[in-house]
């Protein structure tokens, strides 16, 4: 059974142990933190349109981008309460609540976006989603992703020592905080919508970010040194509130799984297609570019692993899967 079918059958079978509800017309509210122009938001809109079409207009989806409904921690609470129906979330907030998800952020677990895509489409990654209903009351429908993580800074970063003391913006979650603490920086958690101003007003010296956001949100206007390190992948997950899921008919659940997964998977395809051009566009700008690999972060990685090998037992299995999927 492939990842998608497995997730679908698990989510359907779970039904979160209660009988499925009767079919009922709904306008689902879907929240996310990315701005309207971002790939994830466009995928959410596309999912809404397709769900409306496939349900012959019975269901619709209202998309709330740019943190309009709150940050991811707040959205997870709303999903748990059933006051928010759906969300496309970074794995960040999920890993704060289910540490095994932190394994997906292991530094250099994958080499590039193609390797990340293969891992996120694997059974091993799909099995992690099965932890969500029981542990946090959300149904994890499937994965999307963003590009590999890089570091954009005001001052050049040519050696591990240059990272020391840098106030470096991170997405608010523990595995990345631990990585940058181990690298000697002062990690500064900030959600995506706050990053531009934080760079502009000097609250941070550097940011952890992907090519797409650096380019689309013009972070390079505020910091002109780019360390191309590809140090982590950045998965996204499409979720439905467990409370809402219980109210849906089996037919509606299947429709949501199929349509949402098609758009999440489309996000992965788009990242694969677009990342080379985004990197080329940034390389063509007037930025200082330096490259780094696993050896650059060797000490930080050793410290990170000392903590996360224990906190995220799934890491071992994910590493084995990643090794198998390294070349295809
Ligand atoms: C970030 O927090 O860096 C981020 C969040 C969502 C999409 C892309 C980047």
Automatic annotation (TrEMBL):
<dbReference type="InterPro" id="IPR038404">
    <property type="entry name" value="TRAP_DctP_sf"/>
</dbReference>
<protein>
    <submittedName>
        <fullName>TRAP transporter substrate-binding protein</fullName>
    </submittedName>
</protein>
<dbReference type="InterPro" id="IPR018389">
    <property type="entry name" value="DctP_fam"/>
</dbReference>
<dbReference type="Pfam" id="PF03480">
    <property type="entry name" value="DctP"/>
</dbReference>
<feature type="signal peptide">
    <location>
        <begin position="1"/>
        <end position="25"/>
    </location>
</feature>
<keyword id="KW-0732">Signal</keyword>
């Amino acid at each position: 059974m492939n990842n998608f079918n497995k997730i679908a059958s698990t989510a359907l079978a779970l039904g979160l142990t209660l009988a499925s509800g009767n079919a009922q017309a709904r306008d689902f509210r879907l929240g996310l933190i990315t701005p309207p122009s971002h790939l994830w938001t466009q995928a959410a809109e596309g999912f809404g349109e397709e769900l409306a079409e496939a349900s012959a207009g019975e269901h619709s989806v209202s998309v709330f981008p740019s943190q309009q409904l709150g940050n991811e921690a707040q959205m997870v609470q709303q999903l748990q309460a059933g006051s928010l129906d759906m969300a496309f979330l970074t794995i960040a907030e999920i890993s704060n609540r289910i540490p095994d998800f932190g394994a997906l952020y292991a530094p250099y677990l994958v080499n590039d976006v193609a390797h990340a895509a293969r891992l996120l489409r694997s059974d091993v990654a799909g099995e992690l989603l099965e932890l969500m209903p029981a542990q946090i009351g959300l149904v994890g429908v499937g994965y999307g992703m963003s590009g590999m993580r890089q570091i954009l800074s005001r001052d050049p970063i040519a050696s591990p020592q240059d990272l020391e003391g840098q106030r470096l913006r991170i997405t608010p979650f523990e595995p990345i905080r631990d990585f940058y603490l181990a690298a000697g920086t002062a990690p500064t958690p900030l959600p995506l919508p706050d990053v531009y101003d934080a760079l502009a007003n000097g609250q941070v010296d550097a940011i952890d970010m992907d090519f797409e956001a650096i380019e689309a949100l013009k972070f390079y206007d505020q910091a002109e040194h780019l360390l191309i390190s590809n140090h982590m992948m950045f998965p996204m997950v499409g979720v439905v509130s467990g409370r809402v899921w219980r109210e849906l008919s089996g037919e509606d659940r299947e429709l949501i799984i199929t349509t949402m997964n098609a758009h999440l998977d489309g996000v992965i395809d788009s990242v694969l297609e677009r990342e080379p051009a985004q990197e080329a566009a940034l390389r063509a700008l007037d930025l200082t570019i330096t490259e780094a690999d696993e050896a650059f972060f060797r000490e930080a990685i050793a410290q990170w692993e000392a903590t996360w090998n224990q906190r995220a037992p799934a890491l071992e299995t994910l590493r084995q899967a990643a090794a198998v999927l390294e070349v295809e």
